[in-house]
Amino acid sequence: MKKHYDMWEELGMDLDKHDEFLEPLPEVYGDLFVSQENRPEAMEYYDFVVGDIHGIRVKELMEEKEQGNPVISSFCVFVPDELVTAAGGASIGLCAGAPFPVQRGEKELGSSDLCPLIKSSIGFKMDKICPYFEVSDFVVGETTCDGKKKAWEILDKEIPTYVMELPQTKSEAAHELWKSEVNRFKEYIEDTSGREIKAEKVAEAIELINKKRDVLQRLYDTRKVDPAPISGKDALLITQLAFFDDPERFIEKTSALCDELEKRIEAGEGVAKEGAPRILIAGTPMPLPSWKIHSLIEGNGGIVVCEETCTGTRYFEAKVPEDGETLEEQIDNLAKRGMNINCACFTPNEDRVDDILRLADEYDVDGVIYYNLQFCQTYNMEYNKIAEALKEENIPVTQIESDFSDSDTGQLNTRIEAFLEMIQG
Ligand code: BJ8
C-alpha cells in the first residue's frame, strides 16, 4: 500500500489517519474471508481488489480525470450510472459502512442520533481518508430521507454536491418528476464535463450496466441451491465491490466466478452443510466494509442466501428497458427503473412486501432477518407489516437494529444463535 503514498498525498488525504483507518483491514479480512473453508477459487480476484482497495482503482480514476472524463460518486441505487458512463466517465458508489469515521461525522452533523450510514459517509470526507471522495468531481445526493437531505448541505461545503429530488410516491406525476430529474442530471453532467451525452452512447451504457445487473442476478441464482456454492459473506462482498469496480472488468470476473459456482452445483459441492438454515436478510444497505451480520449468521452455522437490500437485490433486480432510441425515450426508461425500486422512502410501498415474500420463496429460505440501521425510521416502520405477511406464510422473522460498530456483537450473536436454533427446532 505504501507505494500509493504519492498518489494519496496528491489527492490531499490525511495520510496518518488513513494509515490508522486501514491498519486493521488485512487481519479482519483474513479472519472473515480468506479463512473460509472450501472457498471458490475465483474469489482470488475480489481478495486482490480488497488488498489494494485504495490503490489501482483510484489510479485508474485519476487517469480517467486526466483524459477529461467525469468521475462522479454517489450513495444511492437511484442515481442513474448510465448517464455518467455515456459521458465517458466513471460512476462510483462510496463506502459508508465503517465505524472509524462515525465520530467525526457526528461532530460535523451536530448529532449522534442519526443513521450510521450518514455519519460514516460524512466522516469519510471530513477525515480525508477516502481517496474515492477525493478523486470525484462531484457527489450526487438524493432526497431519500431527512438525514441524507440535510447531510448534503454540509457535504456541499467540502465537495460540490448535486442533489436529485426523488419523489416520495409512485404516481404518474412522480414518474414525471423523476424523469425531469434524470434529465436535469444529464444536463448537469454535460455542463460540468463539457461532454454532450448522445443517444447512441446512452444505449451502449444502458446495455453495459444491465449486463452488470444480469451477472449479479446469475450470481444470486446460484445461491438458490442447497447446499449454496458460495457464502453469503462472499456474495455480499461482491455486490459491495460492484459499486466501484470498472463495469466491464467486473462483468468478466463475476462471470468467471459464476462458471465455477455452476460447476460446483453440478458436483453437489457447497460451502455450508446441506440443510443449514437458509437466511434472507431484508432491510437497509450494508455498504463496505459492513460484514457484521453475515459473519454472525454464518459463524453460527446458518447461510445467508439472499439480501433484499440496496447492497443486494434492490441494486440489480430492476433493469432499464433497452428499447429507447431517442434520448427522450431513454430518459423515460431510466426513470422507469427508479420507480421499480421498492425503497422504504416511498409511500405507500406495498410492492416491497411482495418482493420479500417472492424472494423468501425463490431462495427457499428458512427465516428472515430484518436488518435495520439505527435511526432509519422508514425501514423500521415497514417492519410490522412485513413481519405480519411473513408470519402468515409461516416464515420465521426477527428484527435486528444495529450500527457498524462492534459494541453490540456479543448481544447480536446471542440473538442470532437463538433464532437459528428456533428455526432448526
Ligand atoms: S434506495 S435504502 S440506498 S435511500 S441513509 S434511508 S438507511 S436513514 S440508505 Fe438507501 Fe437509496 Fe433507499 Fe437504497 Fe435509512 Fe440511513 Fe436514510 Fe438510508
Can you characterise this structure?
This protein has helices spanning 5-10, 15-22, 25-34, 43-51, 56-66, 81-86, 102-109, 116-127, 131-135, 146-155, 172-193, 199-222, 232-242, 247-266, 292-299, 313-316, 327-339, 350-362, 377-392, 409-424, and strands at 71-74, 90-93, 138-142, 161-164, 278-283, 303-308, 367-373, 397-402. The chain has 425 residues and is of the alpha/beta class. The strands form two sheets. It has a four-stranded parallel β-sheet with strand order 2-1-3-4, with helices on both faces. The longest helix is centred in the middle third of the chain and has 24 residues, at 199-222. The chain starts with a helix and ends with a helix. The model has no long low-confidence stretch (mean pLDDT 97). Bound molecules: Double cubane cluster. The site of Double cubane cluster has 21 residues, from helix 8, helix 10 and helix 19.
Notable traits:
Rossmann fold; 425 residues; alpha/beta; binds Double cubane cluster; four-stranded parallel β-sheet; 20 helices; 2 domains
